[in-house]
Design brief:
Helix content is 17%, strand content 38%. It is an alpha+beta fold. Strands 1, 2, 5, 6, 7 and 8 form a six-stranded antiparallel sheet that branches. A hairpin with a 5-residue loop joins strand 7 and strand 8. It is globular.
């Protein structure tokens, strides 16, 4: 498994900080979020908008696995093809105000 990150912490974005287009798309794509959940914990990574709820908790899925995965709190499945899996990993700060993101490929 290859993990790529720049090790930079980023602050979560509030809904009102998203562009108008991003807000419209987020309302369509995340219509299941309550209004309280919709206010914060947005991530813009490589021009794609994610919400913290997109990430599955690693501890609930991977009890065992590569040691490098234990540095992260959650993951998304990006794509699967040609026998390869890609996605994102996230490490959330203790105060839940910022995060570190990485891409994985295996």
């Amino acid at each position: 498994m290859k993990i790529t990150t720049n090790h930079h912490d980023r602050h979560f974005v509030y809904f009102h900080d998203l562009t108008e287009v991003q807000q419209k798309n987020a309302l369509d794509d995340y219509d299941y979020l309550t209004s309280d959940m919709r206010n914060d914990h947005w991530i813009v990574y490589k021009d794609q908008v994610y919400h913290l709820n997109d990430f599955l908790a690693r501890k609930n899925i991977w009890q065992n696995g590569p040691a490098s995965l234990f540095d992260y709190d959650g993951f998304t499945m990006g794509s699967y093809g040609n026998a390869h899996v890609t996605g994102l990993l996230i490490k959330v700060s203790d105060d839940q105000e910022s995060y570190r993101i990485a891409e994985y490929f295996c």
